[in-house]
Amino acid sequence: MIAKFMKEYAGWYLLYLLMGIGFLGMFALYHLPFDFILQSLFFTGSLLAIWTVWLFFRFQRKQLMLEEALYEEILDAFHLPSDLAYLQLLAQEKAVAKQEILAYKSRENEWQALIKIWSHQMKVPLAALSLMSQTNQLNQTDVNHQLLRLDNYMANLLNYMKLSNQASDFRFEKVEVKDVIIALVKKYRSQFLQKEMTVEVVGTWQIKSDRKWLSFALSQVIDNAIKYSPNSGTVTIHLDNGVTISDQGIGILPEDIPRLFEEGFTGYNGREHQKASGFGLYLTKRVLTQLGLMIQITSQIDQGTQVRIWQEK
Length: 313
Fold this sequence. Notes:
Layout: H1 2-29, H2 34-68, H3 71-77, H4 81-134, H5 140-164, E1 173-176, H6 177-187, H7 189-194, E2 198-203, E3 206-209, H8 211-227, E4 234-239, E5 243-246, H9 267-273, H10 280-290, E6 293-300, E7 304-311
Parallel strand pairs: 2-4
Antiparallel strand pairs: 1-3, 4-5, 5-7, 6-7
Helix pairs in contact: 1-2, 2-3, 4-5, 5-10, 6-8, 8-10
């Protein structure tokens, strides 16, 4: 502690020593009596010793407070302008650290909720595949359907991780959206066939975008159109300065529509039919926003849902 004290106040003691030597030199130069200077040095030295003791104990108290992080007591002990500036900086750093901890905990809770939902969803197709295997009823269409569900759930998790970590690898190029749509229709062919649904693709639309991420966003919309449509229904995809995907499904409650893009929101349909995780449309909205695209959903109960995606000019 003494070494720290001397390191901080060494300049003041060096100044006192130099001043004393200077006065001795002047007295010697002018042949003045040394009794006066010695008495002065003794008097000022005594004051310096008393001041040093007081200053040392004050310095020691500050150091102990800092080492023990007694923040409330520091506020009373530190009153110099430099001390107050230091405390203000500490308070700012403390507030920032607190916000970061709260954000981290919030993110951790979101991850736990996501993993819980995701693991529950993964169990369903895995259980279906296990049952097919045990009963020797491995129908190719049903197997493909369950594998597609597993692939979609895995893609959702991986893309959620990428977007959360700001690690998205966007590469913009000219994209013919109709080609992306046709590829997705082929991907979901087994689901269309299983529900005996028809799909119509009309028109063309070319934009500059990222093909992979655009495909992911559109796949979420098409998957929902199939999921909530009745057997023998029709999904219509119209391309004209945008893409509109319409289904003849169960529709969405009016009060649920404003919250569809919130993270983890499932709405009445998702809870009632136990098919939604609440992350599909949330990810879709985030991806489309980063691609510079807009999305709007309109729906009527028992009449269907229309999802329009377009690029603002």
